[in-house]
Structures are given as C-alpha cells and as structure tokens.
Amino acid sequence: MNIVVEAKQIKKVYGAKGNVFSALEDIDLTVMEGEFVGIMGPSGSGKSTLLNILATIDEPTAGDIVVDGINLTKMNEEQLSAFRRDKLGFLFQDYNLLDTLTVKENIILPLALAKLNVEELERRADEVADKFGIRDILNKYPYQISGGQKQRTAASRAIISKPNIILADEPTGALDSKSATDLLESLKDLNEQDKATILMVTHDAYAASYCNRVLFIKDGKIFTELVKGKRSRKEFFNKVLDVLSALGGGANDVI
Amino acid sequence: MTLFSLARKNIKGNFNNYFVYFVTLVFSMVIYYTFTSLQYSEKIQESIELSDTMSFMFGVSSIILILFVAIFILYSNSFFTRKRKKEVGLYAILGLRKKTIAKMLFYENLIMGIIAIVIGIILGTLLSKLFAMILIKLMGSIAEVDVGISILAITQTVIVFMVIILFTSVQGYRLIYRFTLIELFYDEKKGEQIPKVSLISAVIGVILLVVSYWLILKPFPDEFTTEYLIKNYGIAFVALVIGTHLFFRSVTVYLLRLSQKNKSRYYRGTRIIETSRLLFRIRGNARTFTVIALLSAATICFLGATYSGYYSNEKRAKEVVPFSYSHLSKGPEFDSQVESIIKADHRHPIKAKLDIPVIQVKGILSFQLDYDINPVKLISESTFNKVANALNKDETVSLSGNQAAVIQPRFTEYTKSVFKGENITIQLPQGSSELPFVHMVESNVLPFDYPDFFLVVSNEMFAKIAKKEAPLTYKVYEVENEVTAQATSRKVNKLVGNDFQVSSSFYTEYKQGKEGNAITLFIFGFLGLVFLAASGSIIYFKQLTEANEAKGQYEILRKIGVNKKDIRKSIKRQSLFVFGLPLTVGILHSCVTLYFTSNFISNLIGINLIFPILMAIVFFVIIYAVYYVLTVNTYNRIVNK
Ligand SMILES: Nc1ncnc2c1ncn2[C@@H]1O[C@H](COP(=O)(O)OP(=O)(O)OP(=O)(O)O)[C@@H](O)[C@H]1O
Ligand SMILES: [Mg+2]
C-alpha cells in the first residue's frame, strides 16, 4: 500500500520574538492509503493546528510534508490551491459555510469551482444530501439552519468531490448521537468503499472507535498511538478511554 | 498615553480607510473655496459684462455645493461609525470610561476635519487661481486678472466646514451613549437577508422606465404649451425616479435570480459566489445606486446642454441681436452722435448701415395662436431683402398686393404649417384690411423685443399704410469683427438706453451670453466633479465596508481551494457590476434626456450635441474607472492577503 501522507519533524511556533508559543513540536506522521486515522488530545494540544498544516491552510515553521508523493512545502500558491480543491476534502471545526450561498450551493461549490458539468453535479448533490439527510434544507441559507445541520452541510461539501484525502476536525461535535453515527458511518463507507484516506480530530471516544488507528497528542507532541487491529469496536472504544484517562482531560468528553 | 495621542494614533491606523474620503473632502473644500472667492472677486467682476449674475450664480451654487457636501459627509460618517462600533465596544470592555471614549472619538473627528480644512484652504488658494483662469479663458475676457487671496472666502469656507465637522464630531461623541455594549458588538448582520423576488415591482419598474422614456422621446406637438411641458415631463420625471429605484431594487434582483436559473452557467467557477454576494447586497445598495444614477444623468445632461449653449452662443446672439448696433432714430442730432461714436472705432469699420422703417399696428389673426401678437410690426419687402443682403443671408421674399410673410417669432417653435392658408386683419384708422400669409421666414431684423411678431408686406402696401400711420425708423449698423467691439458697444449702450428688451449692440448680447454660459459650464463642470468624486468615494467606501465584513468568507474560499488569482478576478467582476450598473443607467438616462434637449436646442440653433455629450460621458467613465481600480486594489488587499 502507498504512503499518502508523510510528515517529518513538523514544528509550529506562534508569535514573534520574546513571546513565542510552540504549538507543535517535532511531529512525525505517516498515513497509508485507505487508513482511517483518529487524532485525539486535550483542548489546545495542537490537533487543529496539525490538521490545518496537513491541509496546507497553515504553514509549518519547520519540517517537510509529502502528500501523494508531492512535497507541499515546495509548491506555490496556485498549485496549493489546486491541490486543496482537487485532492482534499476538509471538514472544519467551525463549519466555514458561505453565508450568501444556500445549503445546496455550499455543497456543490467545490464541483462548481472544478467546473464539473451540471448533470453530474446535480446527481452528486442529491446523493450526498440523501446520505446526510439534508434534502429538506437544501434551499435554506446557513443563518436559517441549526448547528448540526451546518455540520452535515459542511460534511457534504467535504466529500462531494470524492477527495482522496478527507481531513475532519471534530465532525461530530455539534451532532446528536444518531446524526453522529450516520456521519461516522458514511465516513466509514467512503473509507472502505471509495478507499478514501481519512484523518479525523475528535474528542469523542465513540467517534474514535471508528478509526483504524488513533494518535494521541499532548502539548504539541505525539503522546502515544493506538491501533485497532483485530479488536472489535467496543474493545477499541474501551482502549481509547483508557488512554484518555491516562492523558488526563478529554475523558469527560464522553457522553 | 493621553487621549489626544490615542486619537491621533487611531487616525494614523485608519488612514488607509479614510484616505479616499479625506481626498474627496479636501477636494470639495477647494471647489467651495473657489466658488466663494469668485463670488467675492471684484477684480473679475469689473472686467466682465455679467457681474451681478456671476456673483449671484456663484453664491447659489456654493449653497448647492455645501448642501451636497454636507449630505456626503454625514453619509460617510454614518459608515465610519458603523464600522467602528465594535472597536468602541472593545474600548468599553477594556475598562475605558464612556466619557473618555466619547472624547477620544470627538477629538479624532475634529483633528481629521481640521487637517482637511487646513489642506483645503492651502490648496484652495493655490488652485482657485488656476480655476479662475480657466473661467476667464472660457468667458473670453482679455483682462489679466489676479484673483488674489480672499479673506472673506477663507473665513466663509472655514466657518461652513467647521460647523459640519463639529456636528459630526458631536455625533461621534454621542456614539457610545447611543448604544448599549451589546448593540455595539452585534450589528454587522443587519440587512444581510436574501431579498425576495417581487415580479410585480420588477414589472412596474420596467413599465415606468419605458413610459418615462417614451414621454421624453415623444416628438413635440404642434402647439407647445407650458401646461404640456409640465404635465408631460413632470410625469416623465416622476416615472423615471421611481422606475430607476425599482430597477435597482427589484429588476436587478429579478435578473440576478434569473441568471441563477441557468445552472450550467451559474454552477461554473466563481460566478456562483459573485452572483450570490451581489444578490445579498443589492437591497442595501438600491437607494445609493438610484441617487447616483439620477444625479449622474442630471450632471451629464447639464454639462452637455451647457456646453452646447456655450458652443452655439454666437449663433444665438446673432439671432437675438442681428446687427452690431441698432437704435431708434431720435432726431438727426442724436443719430449723428451715435454714428460718430461708431465711426470713431477704426478697428471695427462699418460694413453696412441701414434705415429700417417699422409700422406698429393692431392685428387680429384668423386663428387661435397662443402668442400675444400686438402690436404687430410691419416692415417692407425691400427693407427685409436689404437686411438679408447686409447680413449675408440668402433668404429673400417677394410679395405682391396684400400678401404678407411672417417672421418666425424668436424663441418659438411655430412651423410654416401653422400660418398656412390663414390671414391677419390689421386695423388702420381708415378701416381694416386682410392680409393672407404666404410665407414664413426666419431672418430677424431688430433686437428681440416682446412681442416679437414681425410681418413683411409688399412695398406698395407698406407705402399705403405709411401714409396713415407714420413709421418709426430704426438705424442699424453692421461692423467688421463685431465680437471684439467692447468699448464702442459700452458707449453706444449708454447713449441709446433701452430701446429693446435685449441689448442694442451685438457685442453685449454675445459677451453676456458667452460669460453666462461660461459660468454655468464652469459651475456644472466643478459641481459634476465634486459629485463624481463624492459618489465614487461612497461606492468605494461601501465596497470597503463589505470587504471587511466578507473577510471570513473569502478565507473560507481560499481554504476550499480557490486561488488568489481567481479571487481577485471575482472581486473585479463584482466591483465592475457595482460601479458599472449605476453609471450605465445614468448614461442611458442622460442620453435619452439629452436626445430630448438636443431636439429642443438644435431646433432653435441647429447644432450637433454628440461631441459635448460624448466628452461628458467619457469624462465620467474615466473618473469612475479610477475609483474602480482603487476599489479593486483595496478590496483585494483586505480579503486576499
Ligand atoms: N493563530 C494563533 N496564534 C497563536 N496561538 C495559536 C494560534 N492558533 C492556535 N494557537 C495556539 O496553539 C495551540 C493549539 O491550538 P489548536 O487549535 O491546534 O488546539 P486544538 O488541539 O485544536 O484544541 P481544541 O480541541 O480546543 O480545538 C493552542 O494553545 C492555541 O492557543
Ligand atoms: Mg481544534
């Protein structure tokens, strides 16, 4: 199997002279094609920062990232944009929907930007809308829908272009357990059927139990790693809880 | 840190945003200063014929200017306020006392206003000389005029602008007291609702526009009454204003919505983003667009019309006062006195000298004409032909018996057909006689004097009537190069007095017309400039505010993978729409209106308006283009760093 993401010695430092804060320190990360990787850790540990760097939205202070054999640090702005558009699906922690577009327009935006033909575009929009149960709100605007509906809209937008890599930052944060399960199931489908590689940040051990592997981050460093292997989801779930309590904090996020 | 230095720091920090506003403010001060200094400039007034009018016109236009500028300043200020609400809220949360914040805002505004005034006055004194020179050049005066520094104008400018600035400063002071903290923080989202499409108001808008265009473009009726003028163009004007507003409010919404229907176009690239953004903003912009479109239409119209008036002044003057000098004969002694003045002017030798006998009689027309014809002025066929010859015109008449030719009364639109087959009965002491109209001619003989109803009759007829009713004799002179005969004209005018409603010498009429037109052209030109600068600045500022609000949205786009180039392109297209739409509508309106005025004017003097109109339009487009470029760059800098 191919290596999809390979990050070496990633550092991220915020702030300028005198007042620096190190959000990530020497992170090494390798993700294989078709993996479903979870990232957990206490609030402020650097999870979103890591994900943003992998998504090329943020730049690392040091280190190299190779995605699909391409060294991201060597690409120019235009290439990076094209990379984000064509290869990545990003599910943001704060949804990032466009206020002036309807739910449907938000969802199909990546396809419109890629100039896909309309028939195909409509077909895929229907498909994802059904998958996430947001058919009824397709013509509403973001200010008219709930947080959970926004999250599902964001999820739909992230997967509509069938990206090779999906980066999800707490995709289930605003969802009830039913919708959360639906979303996780569909991520799993994408992972298993379409061979999409998924990296998911989560606070929720239940969500993490859907992954093949979970990375734990603390204070900007990798704390430990847990592989599901042959374990059942229930067993894996308990394992995750164990690590979380060892990590301190985070465990109380379990409902 | 003192309050004062905090305020100063804030201005520095915000200067980029204020820059365009600031420049516009200074510019309008310069123009205001120029207008008032011209109003008070005695030196210029001595050198021209129209001194009273000039002072009056500059007085009035400086009032119009200040009204406009005041609205502009207040409008812009409400923008700044909205933009800074959050900042002010933040200060309050950080623990600054309300009073302190209020004072800071007050000082900030005041400092900026005072800086603007100082720069405005300095530039004003420098530039007003240049502008005055332009005016003198336009008026065609030869006099070397030094405008000098007008203390009166400086004082007036300072006081007027100080009042406005103090007012806005007080508003700034009150800002923090007017809102609760929570209101200061949550304000942005207002007006950000998707507008509903109202087909009815879109249709009404289109209908109103069509109706008003139709009313304006309708050819003149044969009878052209004031009542018709008011009714027809009054309705047209109201329909145009309402129609324009509905156009921006509903028709554009409808069209944008329609363009969304074409999915294969709409769902392609960044068009989806631009269209939806425009759709969201259009309601908030509708009123501004309407005002801008109508005002630019009016400005282009006035500019075009005045320019053509300026352009055609000589022709008009020649019509109103056909000869270089004309006067009523008042005995040989008086007449020779006038003649000797004219003869003494060697630089303007006499080309032709004529006696024009005129008989005034009472007449009744065989039909209804809304022109007061009495007393009818009769001249003979030979007099008319001699006049035509002296003025190098090919229009001659030949009449026999009772036949009469009417000279088209000046400033009217009567056509030949109005008089065809009709006659006039003139009353003489020994009874009346009926004269049938056989011609209408357009060459005038004497300076305009209401009622301007001249009849040319055959020589025999004239001689016959003259026996009963003694003619008045007018003496007319045509001299070489009459457009420069200033000194002699002044002397003749003084001696002759008011024989006519207009001046008795061509030069005076010509020069007054030229000066009047020059002043109007000058005023409209600069008012137009101020208006353009202000409207451009308002659009610029609106776009900037929008850019600041939309920052997050563009960041999302970048995250999804739209590159900087495409975002810039998208900003360009949006701004083009925002600047282009009101301008296009304004130009359309002005073309229609000018078509009407040009019909009107060229009927009178037969000149071509295309060139001046084109100039005015090109001028508008260029200035807007500058603002467009500024807007795109700043917008891009804000959202696309
Ligand atoms: N733009 C920034 N400037 C300075 N510090 C930042 C910035 N963004 C993040 N940080 C800091 O970096 C650290 C990591 O932030 P990050 O958002 O990655 O946390 P997280 O693990 O995603 O937390 P959460 O679970 O709450 O989302 C935090 O301490 C945060 O304060
Ligand atoms: Mg986070």
Jot down its keywords.
heterodimer; A: 255 residues; Rossmann fold; 6-stranded mixed sheet; 4-stranded antiparallel sheet; 10 strands; globular; B: 641 residues; alpha+beta; 3 domains; 6-stranded mixed beta barrel; 69% helix; binds adenosine-5'-triphosphate; binds magnesium ion; ATP binding (chain A); ABC_transporter-like_ATP-bd (chain A); ABC transporter ATP-binding protein (chain A); nucleotide-binding (chain A)
Molecular structure report:
The complex is a heterodimer of chains A (255) and B (641). Chain A is of the alpha/beta class and 255 residues long. In chain A, 37% of the residues lie in helices and 25% in strands. In chain A, strands 6-7-8-3-9-10 form a six-stranded mixed β-sheet, with helices on both faces. Chain A has a four-stranded antiparallel β-sheet with strand order 2-1-4-5, with helices on one face. In chain A, a hairpin with a 6-residue loop joins strand 1 (3-14) and strand 2. Chain A is globular, with a radius of gyration of 18 Å. The N and C termini of chain A lie far apart (36 Å). Chain B is of the alpha+beta class. Chain B folds into three domains: 1-190, no CATH class; 193-323 and 509-640, no CATH class; 350-479, no CATH class. In chain B, a hairpin with a 2-residue loop joins strand 5 (423-428) and strand 6. The two termini of chain B are 31 Å apart. At the A-B interface, helix 2, helix 3 and helix 4 of A face helix 10, helix 17 and helix 18 of B. The structure holds adenosine-5'-triphosphate and magnesium ion. Magnesium ion (MG) is lined by residues 47-48, 93, 169 of chain A.
